[in-house]
Amino acid sequence: xxxxxxxxxxxxxxxxxxxxxxxxxxxxxxxxxxxxxxxxxxxxxxxxxxxxxxxxxxxxxxxxxxxxxxxxxxxxxxxxxxxxxxxxxxxxxxxxxxxxxxxxxxxxxxxxxxxxxxxxxxxxxxxxxxxxxxxxxxxxxxxxxxxxxxxxxxxxxxxxxxxxxxxxxxxxxxxxxxxxxxxxxxxxxxxxxxxxxxxxxxxxxxxxxxxxxxxxxxxxxxxxxxxxxxxxxxxxxxxxxxxxxxxxxxxxxxxxxxxxxxxxxxxxxxxxxxxxxxxxxxxxxxxxxxxxxxxxxxxxxxxxxxxxxxxxxxxxxxxxxxxxxxxxxxxxxxxxxxxxxxxxxxxxxxxxxxxxxxxxxxxxxxxxxxxxxxxxxxxxxxxxxxxxxxxxxxxxxxxxxxxxxxxxxxxxxxxxxxxxxxxxxxxxxxxxxxxxxxxxxxxxxxxxxxxxxxxxxxxxxxxxxxxxxxxxxxxxxxxxxxxxxxxxxxxxxxxxxxxxxxxxxxxxxxxxxxxxxxxxxxxxxxxxxxxxxxxxxxxxxxxxxxxxxxxxxxxxxxxxxxxxxxxxxxxxxxxxxxxxxxx
Amino acid sequence: xxxxxxxxxxxxxxxxxxxxxxxxxxxxxxxxxxxxxxxxxxxxxxxxxxxxxxxxxxxxxxxxxxxxxxxxxxxxxxxxxxxxxxxxxxxxxxxxxxxxxx
Lengths: 583, 102
Known about the structure:
CATH class of the largest domain in chain A: Mainly Alpha
Radius of gyration of chain A: 22 Å
Strand order of the largest sheet of chain A: 6-5-10-7-8-9
Structural class of chain B: alpha+beta
Distance between the termini of chain A: 27 Å
Strand content of chain A: 5-15%
Order of helices and strands of chain B: EEEHEEE
Low-confidence stretches of chain B: 1-18, 29-42
Oligomer: heterodimer
């Protein structure tokens, strides 16, 4: 366990050892590992987090994504660190993890239900409530093997990049419901743990979440940074009135939609609230507080200036079970193509997908989740849908060549995130680190690839602990202290990073064996395009990409021609036994 | 807890061409989502390797930031690497906050 800890790294180990690289993601031999880690269920703030690892539906390679909530902590309190799902059921089922037993129960009555309804129905039939049971479920999107489907926990917490919900659907597993167990997590040194927990708590209570991201510091900040994704990267300038923009701000949303706390396990932060839309045509809809990426996806990205309908689409995404970033790129691409005439009203069954049309997007979401009409094409994600359309439509889609799409920014102004997304093994970012002055937002290719390489491994370790990143702060010093207090080990931050890098290299080798080669460490044409207006106009990354890759591979200890981890690199991380798998 | 003013730039390093002088540069950011780790004040700390008081002060500053979750990078002959422990013999150390959001 010391070599892989839990969560992400342990899941990757299971993936490597048990899932043959040549199988398809929907093969029953695929595994879904949903695991907490040593910090899970303790007094460390935000320790209800789990990491989901599987062979993903978009890239067919490794996936490692996290969700917060209560699920991980409740599982630990039942006496388990994680669950590994293998095979496939003959009929739809859900797994009930009770306080003293586990059972598979029929789920036919839950089919077609969204993730909110599924959680409520399961709790009702088992006689449980929100604080006594946590439910991880898929919506109709996962049931219908939509490749951008995620797994949703406690209404709105998503482990979703790279299609883990589709994998769960392929196993005919609608949900895993975990009761709040009565066991206690064994802690070697409670006093030491208390000290580090208080330290984390002190910092985490100031975290207010990411609700205000679209509004940010207001128009000046938004225009200055130019990192909002607008009209599918057609522009870096959002033509929106001050009054409309202000509605995307945290004070307006929380005051108008009257948020009620919906915190995760042991979390002091004030983000995550349940709300009700109180204006416009979707008045009365219960939503979970939309965070930055959701508002970006259904606001500026599709040029929707009406915040209330953006919040509706964000919540519908969670309910139907889509990863919201992937969905945003998908519908923005449809609107872009509709605007240019590549996709027509007839093809869309009469829907008019003009920029900003939230109601048409809402209907197309249902069609996608149920694979109806044009929705069946969209259900395979934006890369495959665009390739199916071909021609100019194919050039307008935003994705990485592995098949996943980025998070909700215009990464042409945040080179670190674009590069990290494109070279990542997991189907989403792997470093989450932007160093101002070190990794320039745009314009400094070597600083960018240096920063991505230098910070690799931190996130993989942090995601192996069973704790929310907004609490841990990716701080390996306090991470190590907390693990040592619980286990009695003597981890150092340096060792923590090495454990994370072991996971990175294991995933890299796995993906190479899947067929995800160096040629796939690139952005699509539109994703890597050069901005045509705004403050970064004319500053493009594509011309630097090859040198950035060479520098990155060198710093990672990987072969610059093939991107294979070198034998000495694998030996350094205790992976000598897999050298023969690629050399 | 460091104070909560929005920072400008931060560093710990050694720009002076004297072999026994180290410098630490602390790089902040206005784009942070939390203000908890933000700092202000001096942006550069330098130390003479043979001056125990300066080395102690630099080590304390380093420790304070790293414990608060900042990232530390050594810079040696233009090459950077992440570090977690202060080393008085390094030419330059850069400290920068982690940035992330949802």
